[in-house]
Amino acid sequence: MKVAILGAGCYRTHAAAGITNFSRACAVAEKVGKPEISMAHSTVIMGAELKYLADISDITISDPIFDGQFTVIDDFAYEDVMKAHLSGNPESIMPQIRAKVKEVAKELPKPPKGAIHFTHPKDLGFKITTNDSEAVKDADWIITWLPKGDMQKGIIEKFAGDIKEGAIITHACTIPTTKFYGIFEELGLTKSKNVQISSYHPGAVPEMKGQAFISEGYASEETIKKLMDIGMKARGEAFKLPAELLGPVCDMCAALTAITYAGLLTYRESVMNVLGAPASFTQMMAKESLVQLTALMDKVGIKNLEEHLDPGVFLGTADSMNFGAIGEVLPPVLEALGKRKLKSCTPEGMCE
Fold first, then answer.
1. 351 contacts 345 by C-beta, under 8 angstroms
2. Is 68 left (phi over 0), alpha (psi -120 to 50) or beta?
3. In angstroms, rounded to a whole number, what is the distance separating the alpha carbons of residues 325 and 321?
4. What percent of the chain has pLDDT over 90?
5. Cβ distance 331 to 322 under 8 Å?
6. Mean pLDDT, to the nearest integer, of 165-172?
7. H or E stretch including 313?
């Protein structure tokens, strides 16, 4: 299998977040006996996993940065980074790494003119190029790690003609799978070349966590199975999910989606199994909750929710549903709402 990875990434944004580390990279480095992998990040660690865990040897990474200020920081010994992470104490070394990245970033242009890495892709056995068309030519699988969604069509159409018949094309960040598929549909490739569109999304910075999220809906079952098999070998864990849900599961709103989904599952169990309500009624009431709360947010804006719905309203209503599976999640929710309850209201309805 020939793989083309478009986009090498840059560690500066991860360092700025201050919450990431190299846990996954170090685990892979130890497993395959190659310390250089311990500080590989973004698509480079994902490529290393494919090469050393899934036995895919023909991998090319394409990025314009290879003709720019591609900066490799070599201040840190891979063995020291591995020791800190594998002992369960990554923060014994990560503050120094983040500080160094921020220092270097002050004088370095942002991508695509400058990027910060700790391991050169060539040292891990990858081919590199700045020519996307060269990278994707004859590639069986194209993994994209491109800038934000509204820029991607302009990048993709430059190499679209070089994509082979039946190629698998996945994205790893910054765009919903539905929109990603739409680009290739507009370019006519879904029909003329039968390209298989999905995702190979890490759901977090890939050097920190080993997981892959595979979108269903636009690729054949055979393709999805192949991606799942590779994801399990390379990333350690893989999940299938509807294409429409990739963003809510993997992006910034994942915390809210998780809370909502946990609420749906526990609500369903309590209402159907304890109260004995039929599925149709249970679903109708769940939909009412989700639709009307979303409608309120659309109407008044997320910044102004409390002005129109006091969080305290639930303290005397939702608490009556505190039974069965709901009892697992509702108490901390009520506590959180209680902290946000408006302090007082006047007879005219003005609250503070």
1. yes
2. beta
3. 10
4. 89
5. yes
6. 97
7. none
Locate all alpha helices (DSSP H) within the chain, ordered by sequence: 12-17, 23-32, 43-52, 78-86, 94-105, 132-136, 149-159, 177-186, 189-192, 221-235, 246-250, 254-269, 279-300, 305-308, 330-340
Task: State how far the Cα of 197 lies from the Cα of 143, in Å rounded to an integer.
Answer: 10
Alpha-carbon distance of 18 to 147, in angstroms, equals: 21
| 131, 227, 187, 8 alpha-carbon torsion, rounded to 10° | -30
CA distance 64 to 66: 5
Q: Assess contact for 9 and 41: CB atoms under 8 A.
A: yes
Summarised one tens digit per residue, pLDDT across range 272-285 is 999 999 999 999 99
Yes or no: say if 239 and 295 are a contact pair by the CB < 8 Å rule.
Answer: no
d(CA 143, CA 3): 7
Kindly state the tokens that stand for 26.
């170090």
pLDDT tens string 43-91: 999 999 999 999 999 999 999 999 999 999 999 999 999 999 999 999 9
Would you put residue 150 in left (φ > 0), alpha (ψ -120 to 50) or beta? alpha
Render pLDDT for 99-145 as a digit per residue (tens, 0 to 9): 999 999 999 999 889 999 999 999 999 999 999 999 999 999 999 99
Coil vs helix vs strand at 246: helix
Distance CA 175, CA 229 (A): 23
The length of the chain, given as a count of residues: 352
Alpha helices, DSSP H, located in 171-239: 177-186, 189-192, 221-235
Q: Which residues contact 236 (CB under 8 A, 6 or more apart)?
A: 24, 210, 211
Would you put residue 162 in left (φ > 0), alpha (ψ -120 to 50) or beta?
Answer: alpha
What was the pLDDT predicted at 348? 54
Angle, alpha carbons 296-301-304 (nearest 5°): 95
Q: Which two tokens stand for residue 342?
A: 């408006």
Contact 67, 113 (CB under 8 A): no
